[in-house]
Structure formats: C-alpha cells, structure tokens
Fold each of these.
Amino acid sequence: MRLTEALRINQQPAPSNGKRRNVILPCGFTPLHLQTLLKAHLRIRFPEDDTEVAIGLFGDLEGNLARAINQPADGALVPIEWSDVDERLGVRSSAGWSERILEDIVQQGSEKLQRLASSLVALTKQMPVAVIGPTLPLPPLSYLPPSQIGAFELRLRANLLEFLNAICGTGGLRLASDSALALRSPVAARHDVKFDLVAGFPYSVAHADAVAAVGVECLFPPAPKKGLITDVDDTLWSGILGDVGIEGVSWCLDQHSQIYAVYQQLLASLAESGVLVGIASKNDPQLLKQALGRTDLLLREQHVFPVEASWSAKSEAVGRILQAWNIGADAVVFVDDSPMELAEVGEKYPAMECLRFPSDDPAGALELVYKLRQRFGKSEVRDEDRIRLQSLRQQAFLQNEQSTEAPADFLARLQAKLTFDFSRQGTDSRAFELVNKTNQFNLNGRRYTESDWAAYFQRPGAFLLTASYEDRFGPLGKIAVLLGRSRTDEVDIDAWVMSCRAFSRHIEFQTLLQIFRRFGASRLSFAFQKTDRNGPLQEFFAQFAPELPERDLVVSARTFDATSPQLFHEVIQRADNEQHS
Amino acid sequence: MNNIRETLTECFSLVFPELPKDRIPSASIDNVKEWDSVAQINLLTVIGERFGIEIDYLAFVGASSFEAIASQLAETI
C-alpha cells in the first residue's frame, strides 16, 4: 500500500455505531508514515471500527513502553530497531565505532534488552502486544568487510535472541516472523537513509507498509478456521485408488510424488493442533479404509474423523462431515484437485472456502500448504485442542449408545466428573477463546477484545467460572465459561458459553447449581439476548420461562430447583488454589 | 502546468482533508495550521507517488506554499 492509498482509507468516515479501537505505537523513532499505514491496515482489518493510533516520544522506547502501560488501548505494536537497543547502532549517531565503543555497545545493549523485556511483559498485562524487529541491517561498525560476520555482531545477535527467547511464550505477546516480513519487504529496500537523517524515520514507505501489515496480522490475528475436508485421489496421494490399487498410490521422492507427503504432514500437524480433519472421497468405502490403513501414510487414522466415502455428490459427503463436527461451513476449508468438485461443494456451501490442490504443480501445492497454515495457524495449542478429535469420536459413540436406553439411566452410568474453577482474574486464555468463538450455547453473542476482557475483572464482584468435564468415554477438557458479578443476594451473569460437544449431559444445570450454592444467591440475573444462532441456549432458558423475553432473564433459586433434573456429576470446586469435592 | 496544479490540488486534499478546495491554491505554511514538518513530509511523499517522481526533500525545504511547490514541480518534471 502506498501512502496515497493509506491517506484515502484513513479519510473514509468511520461507521457512526462503530467501536473505538485504540492502538499504541510506542516506537523509538519518528513513526511518520508507519503511523498512517498502521491506521490504514487497522481500518481494513476492522472496517466497522473507528481506529486511532497513539504514538510516543522520539528516542525513548523505554519511556514510551512505560507510559503505554497506563494508556487504555486495545493493543500495542512495538517495532524495535538496533538504534533502540543502543542509539550508537544507528546512522544518526556520531559516537564513533572504536573497539572500546563497540564493546560498550554490547554491554549496554544487553542491559537495555533486559529492561525492555521487563517493560514488554508488564505491558502484556494490560493489552495484547506485537513485537517486530530489528528489521533494518546494522551499519558496518566493525573492521570486517560487510560480507563477513564477527564476534561483535554475533554477540549482539546472541543478546537479541536471548531477549526474544525470554519474552516468547509470554501470554498476550506475539513476535512477528522475520520470514513473513522478508517475503513482503526485501532487506535491501527497507532503510530510507535520507528520511532517517532528515526526519528520524528510518523506513522506506514500502517497508513501513510491510511492518504495518505484518504487525496488524500479529496483533489481531483472524480467528483460525476449525476444520479441513480433503479429497484423497491426486490430493492426499498421487494416483486414483480405484485404478491403481492400494499399493499403487504414492507420496514419496522415488515416485516423484513427495509433494503429497508434504501435504500429509501438514494435515497431521494441523490435526495435532486441534484442527478437525475429515475426508470426502468418491471411492469404494472398503477400499479406501484399507488404503488409509497403510502404515507408511503420514496422516494417521487417529488424525481423521470422519471418513466419508461414497459415489454420491461431494457436497453430500461434506454435509455429513459438517453434521458430525457440528460447526458452520464458514469455519471449514475444502481441498480437492477437481475444479468441478470444488464448484459443486462451493455452490452448496458458499461460505466454505474451497481450494484446489494443484496436483500437476508442486510449487503451487507448496503455496497451498503455506496458505492452509495461514488459515489454521494459532498462537498456542491448548489441551482442549489436542483432545478435540478424540472427544468428537466419543460424542458420536455416546449418541449411538444414548439412543438405546432412557436418558437418566444413561447419564447415571456416565461416571461424569465436573471441575469448576472460580477465579477473580481473567488470565485463562482458553476461557477467553471459548467466549469469543461459541455461537450456539451463548448467552448473548457478545465478543470481547483482550482489553474488554481485562477491564471486566476490574468491576466489583467480577468472577470467572470455567467448567472442565470428563466421563467414562474420556475428557472433553474445558467446555464451559461463565462471567459474572456477585452482589449481596444476586449474581449478574454477563457471559455464558458452553461448547456444543458438551450438550445433553446436564452440565448447564450443574453450572447454575454451583453458582447458586457458591454465592448463596436467591436469584440469577442473565444479560440474555436472543441471537440468530443461540437456539440451544434459548431452548434451555425456555424451561424456566416458556414466554422467553427477547433480552434479560431472571431465574430464582425456587424456579431452578423446581426445574432442574436429577444430576449425577461428581463435582470438584476449585478457587484460589483450594480444592473442594 | 494546469495538470500539475490539478494533481497537486488532489495531493493537498489528501494531506489536509479539512482544507476547503477553493483555499488550496492560496495555501501556505502560514495560513494552514496543520502544515507542520510531519505534514510537509507527508505532502512531499504523496506528491512523489502521484507524479511518479523521486522527491529530493532538501530541494523542497523552502517550498512552503502551494504556489512555490507548483513552481518547483514545473522545473523538476
């Protein structure tokens, strides 16, 4: 994006009912075009919001970070250049490049990076933070020709790596990838020396654009897709199974089909990070089952659920997979080598992204692999992600068993164990994620930014309740989240979500029972709002109020007791590191 | 020259969106309060992009009015 385009975007009036989104750019140099371009990229990312970018003081990255901590904002993008580590590492300095000075730079730089690490970690307590850099090359300070690297630069880089390693993994802090930036901004075209010397702004416009784009992607990553449905013939492997047989399909260097091995490894890796992977194939089911049982397949059987093999339309198989996963088409990517199949599925499910596996073009296939990683990439993998596929399989098995006996008898035999964690802090990232992605059992559909979430826990009486579930079929992990505020005799419930994997186990009743008991409340006041998608929650509430209002609902302890079915869960309550059974 | 003035007017509109179009030809650093050093760099960058030329910022240091920039551009292009 050029500056002209960025200014045009920024001049578009913001929607009058939009949210105000404040982002801090606490850099040590003059932000100039970076500020303009960052605002434009934020406007593109959040077209409904009114965006503002606040900046700091020139040459004072540390001070800017310290001041940012007290500034309410939705996030901070922190570009760090070598001149922020030590100003003598920039071309604006005239301090000299003698060996004594270089030694001092290494020493002082190390201490500065340690202070920056502390400031950044402190800032993440207030808002999400993305760190990027250093992105500019070092000036040729040492006696070595620029084609060589020596002890001075290696020690600087070692200190930098130590710093990055120290802050990496801090909750709410994301490090921008050098490689992603290099793809958009070649190193040689990054530094605008004239601008740097005239205005203290070291970036070319093109580089500022790349930093802003990568920074926004890091700071506000789009919600990852949840499921991938793949074809098999000439997609998961080379060859048509029905023609060449089980041993005839391949994914190896010898057969010039290694790119399929790359795709299989990606799918296995996605599955291990909690992505649902299903197969939709026009094949003989028995033959496909045998082929998927090949021991050299890199995508293992446990990575895939379900496998839909038939001769009917692909869209029908895709429909059955969506039903098994119980997720919307907009959260799913479909991959097939056939443009016809892609078009047929795309027509039935317009919200689903349909991508062609270019079986005749290894470079294109590798590009697809990158694209899929982009769609499914996530900042962290939680326990719930690892067990998602297993619990879906259990759900299918459970539904099958449940249909053969009375519900109460079945639930009594489940050996269900519910663990409730009460907290006065909002540090649970899985809870934050669940509230922001659950649609069906959702009190009001409200989404929270990280700063909204942090601010909620400053309110009087605010608490977070999470519920984890397991039964004889295995664990489901953390499946329910409730945000509330306790008062003398009443609890206000502002958010309540439950994963659809946990339906039909009366967990919702047990959750409310625990709230009544823990706070001794005589009634619960729900910030309920009907939405197009929260039908399951509406059905649950209709048991207490058959004439369900459009918004807000109060449930008394007496009504709850009269309505609640018999509950069979073993309950564990935890709060402030205490445990009560 | 007319083309230069027309495109330059668009550049001014982008950098100074609050400035009425009829005031642009008489705009100068003295009568546009938003015209500070940052705005000057933004303006010259946008001019470089719109005219497809490499701007020598130092050569434009004294160009602090619409007329002065238009004249300088006429010499450059």
Amino acid sequence: MSGNVTGRAWTFGDNIDTDVLAPGIYMKLPVEEVAQHCLEAVDPEFAARVQPGDIVVGGENFGMGSSREQAPQALKILGVGAVLAKSFARIFYRNALNLGLPALFFREADEVSAGDRLELDLAAGKVRNLTTGATYAVAPIPPHLLEMILMGGLMPHLKMRLAAERGA
Amino acid sequence: MASTLVEKIIARASGLSSVAPGDIVTCKVDLAMFHDSSGPRRVGPRMRELGASVWDPSKVVVVTDHYTPAVDLESAAIQKLTREWVKENKVETFYDQQGICHIVLAEGGHLRPGMFCAGGDSHSTTGGAFGCYMAGFGAIEMTGVMVTGDIWTRVPQTVRVDWTGRLPEGVVAKDMMLLLCGALGVQNAFKVVEYGGEAVEALPMQERLVLTNMAAELGAETGLIAPDAVTLAAIRQAGGEVDDEAVRIWRSDPDAAFEAVHQFDASALEPQVALPNSPANAGPVAAAEARRIDQAYIGACVGAKLQDLHMAARVLDGRKVAAGVRLMIAPASAATMRKAAADGTLATLTEAGAILLPTGCGACAGYGAGVLADGEVCISSTNRNFKGRMGHMTSEVYLASPYTVAASAIEGRVCDPRPYLTDAA
C-alpha cells in the first residue's frame, strides 16, 4: 500500500460506537459475517454498497466503546481505504492503525458531503476534496506508526521484529 | 519534577526516570489479561502465524466470561478453543466460568499499585482502582504483548476529579459516574481520569471499581484511584501481597500538573438515569420517571458485584416484581454467587420474583441470556446503552444504579429508589 488513498466519502455523525460498527449479537460469528452488519443501525445499505477504497468520514469520538477489533476490521474487510474523523476513541484508533487501516484526525469533517471524492496523502497529512476542490492540512500520522501502517499493520511489523531478534 | 500517578507508573514501566504527557514510550507489561471473545480465538492464530510463544505465561491471566455458559455450537467451540490455548501455552492463571474478567482479577488479588497492565477488554480500566495502570487494547495489540511483553503508549494527560462531601442514602458510585458521563461527556480519549476527594476515600473497594470501570464510558484511556488503607486491605484479603510503602509512592505529587481539575459535591447528588442511547444522556431520575419497562437487568462487571446484589435485595426485601416485568440478575462472579447464597441475598431476590442467571457478561453486551426484542425497554445496572447493545436495534436501555433498577422492577416503570430505603428494615 502507498501513502495515498482515493475514494468516495461515506459520512456519519458523532459517537459512532463499536456496537454500531460490529453488533454484539453477531460477534461470535466470523468477522467476515460481522462485516455484513457493519453500520446497519445507522445506514442499512452501507455494507452492500460501499466500494473498495471508499473513505468513511465520522464526527467526534469515532469508534467509542468496546475494544473489539472487529469494528475497524469490518471496515477493512468491506474495502474501506481510510477513516477520517473529527476525533477517535482511543482503542478504535490504535486497532485501526494496527490493522493497517489509516485513521486521520480531520476537524473539517462537516465540509464533506456523502459521495464526495476524497484524496488523502498520509505521509504529508493532506486531505483533498476532489468534488469541491478544497484542500486541508491534517496532523500527519506519527512516523513510527505510519511506517507500521504502510507495512500492512502490526503483524508484518512483529514478524520483522521477531526475525531481527532471532537473527541477533 | 512533580509527576501525576500515571506518569510515575509509566516512567517505571518504561525504565525512565520521568516522563511527560505526549512522550511516546515502550512499557514492559507486568500483567496481561484477556477473555474468550478477545483472547485466544483472535490471538492464537496470529501467534501461530508468527511462530512465537507467550513471553511469560506467569504474567498472563485468561478468563472465560463472554460466551459462558455455551448456548450453541459457536459459543461452545469458542470455549473449547480457549481452554486448549491455555493448556498449550502453559498459562497458569485461568478462570473458567468463574465470573467477569475485571471482577475475578480484583477478587484474585492480581493487581497492585504501580503495576502496568494490559487488558483485552475496554473495561480493563477497572483495574485502576488498585492504583495501577490498566487499560484496554484490541486483540491485535494483545498479540504483540503476548509475544514481546511490551507495548508502546503515548503518555496521557491527567484529568483530576474530586468529589467533596458524603453520598446521601440511596445514592451510590454508579450515580457519580452517570453524572460524570453527562458532565464531562464521552469524548475524553487519550486522557486519564484520576478520582479523589472525601467521597471517593469513603467508598469501599467494590464501589471504587465502578468509578474506574466507567472511565471507559468517559472515553478515557483509564481511570485511577491512588491507593490507601482500603486498597491495601482489599489486596491482602484477596491473597495478594503489597507493601505499606505503596500508599506513599503511588500517588500524584501535590504540585503535579493536571490538564483540568473538576470538583463535584457528593452530598448534593441524586439518583441518576442515562436515557438511550448514550451514557452521556444522564440526569436525575425524575427526567425518566414513569417510563414503562419490560425488563430490569442487574448484571455486568460494573453492576452485579456483591454490594450491588445487596443494594437490590435491600429494595426488594418483602416486595414483588411488577406483573409483566422480568427482573434478571446475573452475578458478576461465581464468588459473588456463593457469598450471596450464603448470606441469604439470593433468597431475598428470588423470593421477590427475580430470575437468577449464570455469572458472565450475559445480556450486557448482547452476548448472553436476557437480550431484548424489538421495541422493548430495559432498565439496567450495566455501563453501556448504545443502540442495539442489549439486543434488537429498536430496543431501549436506561442505565441506573442497582437501587434504581430494583425499585423500577417493583413499580414496572423507572422510579426513584429512595422511598424504598426509608424503612429501618
């Protein structure tokens, strides 16, 4: 994966919680099945209509609640390329990055309309709305985390670290 | 340099003389806990992929609580996989169907002031009541902890919450936390909430667990309460070892820099209820009064400890659950169940018409017995009332203290419990 993501925006409000992203009643099922119910409480069409590369745009405190990694994993399985939100819940944010799903703090989320085409430059910390022409500077992902995300997440990172330790 | 409690703990765990908010550091983990939902079934396959083993099986605690007891083939398979993983990885501390992870950790004397602990569950914040750092992490990060024994963190800011005065009759730690969810909101990510003041010092250990448990609802990284004589006694009673010195060492310095200091008056607090679908929708019980209910639920790590069952029994003693309402009680641990059986609490509850459920996370997260049908209304002693949390997407959950849940079960509608507590009974 490169440091750029381009896709259509799906917009949501504040406090999108982990029960909405990965409903508890489906949690014992494989994550691929949980993903089919992702966000259905607020948009029943989402799982069926989201396209690979699409970008989820949330309000404040995106991903609040449980530590369940199925919340960001469901988005990733559905092909979501990145999540932008005014702010994130801590465990969701860490899970997303560790799973290789880029998450950017984006204060101007309200200026994005559903269906807008967005282009993200993760390394530079840039969001471009190709539909409106607006460009935004956002806090870039800290370097030690960006390196891990671009590698594919924590698993490839751990593989590299363990290999280095074994080789030492 | 003056430090807050969390800064002192993170400095020790990262081997540094001091740390400041914003620093990114790597901490050695003193204890790692996960359960049947977030644990072996998610971590095991990744460890196989890495060809790595558990860094230190003596520092790992595994608990089955989410899918217990098994009710179908999927949950039975998850239980089996968990037991096998524990055996294969030589994990010594395994609580199989003994209760909810956060409560059995406390009951087992595993947590001591100053420790740095990682939990595979968002309510791992509960452990902070013992003056240790314990926060929730996802299964993928717990995989990293399992194979390396360390984890990175960004040193958080501390928000100090002081409770002055004493709680009035019928008002408990759950009401303090619902009020805080309304007052501070649910968006306190990457911050630690440290509780103190006269009303907090007066709380017994089980009530303190409520404050740190629901730091998760505030959105905080974790909650913390500096240790005192109550903490040390609870650890020793649970079979843990701790030095008296811990009280002096593990506390924020008097001149430590807090991001904010909030003060609340416990003596002015009334019973609180959070309306659907957020703990932040909290207010005095009067705001929800007379809302008809289908179910009353006393369960979860936050709301079904022995003291919670005692609260419910005090209200329900000699009274009956309203016709058409089901009161379900899932004690937070097997030890809670045993003690409540021995002291007559379970008899009082079941005499009043309560249905006793097995210990475990149960209906709180929509995993176990007691889930809600479409349009049903539940008042619950649990900690979350997100849309669809306890069952159908159109069901509604009102959060309240065990006192308020029990009183509401009697009346069949949300009500103030205080009139039920005036008798000398």
